[in-house]
């Protein structure tokens, strides 16, 4: 049987990808951002997940304003890095796991989550930056990926509670897949940042750290109750991306063991947060 | 969990210096954002750079929207329904980073904005709520 063995949360700031692509990671500005991922890269090299269900948001790359899916799952065979206006990132194509993805898509729909199914799309920094942070710069990505795109751009995005419930449903779907697969769920985006308007540049260390504490705790009820307006007021207009972390957290079940935690202010305009969690049955 | 949509939307106007990208803004700014999206293609970027006015006139945008884009007045673009991830295609075409472009909306000089960010960013103190002054 397929099983979810761990959850990873990480920011997906585009400038982090650029820093890696342009070999700037050792510069004083960037060094503390990347240092927090050294442990995670060693850990994942041992864990060798077969598949990563990677929860992220598209930033006007694959989706424009024509179609706005709330939850979309990638069921394709492979995905190319998107050209976000300055050429595609020089990273390998992302290989999908169509069998597991279609199994999850069908299971979720039968479980009353009305998913949008994507067969072809390019994937932007929201997906490739977390992969670079966790895997470094290999010739080929060592794990297959099921992209799960969430609308956090046009309001209303899904509630935190709905994200959590989707995570629980993903866990049920993975457990009913007959093949023996080591599956991780990653929630990406955040933490506090605001990229627009006169309030741009907002960073809230205290709130972010409380969120990291709650993510690492058992239960999770307090996380599920955080409203959109609280994310907006406390973490900036783009902090809402953190609802995507709750899909990962919901997929791990009530009890978790925190294995690794990293928080750094800041990269570009954004507070960088990172967690590795293990489900405890 | 049942949420009153009117209360939900009304609260967004209580956040200082922030334009939440609501359905209302998404409708108003539809063509401005689709115009910006078109700059993802290299051939469109070339045409835009060669003659901005001629290129933008091909889009069914209001004159105010066109002028806001031509002026690179991003706060005005947000007011007229622009979304920052779409507007990013415009400032990326200009060769600006997020850090540089975002700073232009704050009323700060690029140097001051960069210095604030290096020092740890803007504190949420006093900019959470207009009504509650916190």
From TrEMBL, chain A:
Database matches in InterPro entries: Xdiol_dOase_suB
Gene3D superfamilies given in the database record: LigB-like
Stretches assigned to the Extradiol ring-cleavage dioxygenase class III enzyme subunit B domain: 9-272
Keywords associated with the record: Dioxygenase, Oxidoreductase
Positions of transmembrane segments: none
GO molecular function: ferrous iron binding; oxidoreductase activity, acting on single donors with incorporation of molecular oxygen, incorporation of two atoms of oxygen
UniProt xrefs under NCBIfam families: PRK13364.1, PRK13365.1, PRK13366.1
Protein name, as recorded: Protocatechuate 3,4-dioxygenase
Automatic annotation (TrEMBL), chain B:
Stored Gene3D superfamilies: Dioxygenase LigAB, LigA subunit
Family matches, as SUPFAM superfamilies: LigA subunit of an aromatic-ring-opening dioxygenase LigAB
CDD domains attached to this UniProt entry: PCA_45_Doxase_A
Superkingdom field: Bacteria
UniProt domain Extradiol ring-cleavage dioxygenase LigAB LigA subunit: residue ranges: 32-117
Gene Ontology MF terms: dioxygenase activity
Keyword list, A-Z: Dioxygenase, Oxidoreductase
NCBIfam families reported in the protein's UniProt record: PCA_ligA, PRK13377.1
The protein, known as: Protocatechuate 3,4-dioxygenase
Native organism: Sphingobium chungbukense
